[in-house]
């Protein structure tokens, strides 16, 4: 019986490439930080356009009586914005009510 074998050139470099890729994606924190920024930016557009973003319909206008009472109390008549807590919690990552928890993948 004859012995024979196969040698595949370049396997070592492929293994090294895969190991380097594994090491780079071990911590996805930068990716998720970018996602948080994109989310906040998108939500800012949603509030600025009162919901009419990317095919969504504009939010239903405030009831005129409620809008007048809101203005009389010293608040702007923007929809879903009275003191800005909800808007800040969705549009400003440095707002104390903006919630994120990012940690490296696999830890």
Termini, distance in Å?
52 Å
- Report the principal-axis shape: rod-shaped
Q: What summary fits the major beta sheet?
A: none
How large is the share of residues in beta strands?
A: under 5%
Secondary structure class reads mainly alpha
**Amount of helix:** 40-55%
What is the ordering of alpha helices and beta strands?
A: HHHH
The domain count comes to 1
Number of helices: 4
Total strands: 0
Segments where pLDDT lies below 50 for 5+ residues? Answer: none
Question: Average pLDDT, to the nearest integer?
Answer: 88
Rg (CA only) = 26 Å
Structure description:
With 107 residues, the protein is mostly helical. The protein has one domain (28-107). Helix content is 47%, strand content 0%. It contains four helices and no strands. It has helices spanning 11-24, 29-48, 64-72, 85-91.
């Amino acid at each position: 019986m004859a012995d024979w074998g196969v040698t595949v050139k370049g396997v070592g470099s492929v293994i090294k490439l895969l190991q380097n890729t594994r090491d780079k994606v071990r911590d996805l924190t930068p990716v998720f930080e970018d996602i948080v920024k994109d989310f906040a930016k998108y939500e800012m557009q949603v509030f600025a356009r009162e919901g009419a973003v990317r095919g969504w319909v504009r939010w239903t206008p405030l009831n005129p009586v409620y809008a007048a009472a809101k203005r009389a109390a010293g608040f702007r008549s923007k929809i879903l914005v009275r003191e800005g807590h909800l808007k800040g919690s969705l549009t400003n990552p440095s707002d104390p009510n903006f919630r994120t928890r990012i940690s490296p993948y696999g830890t």
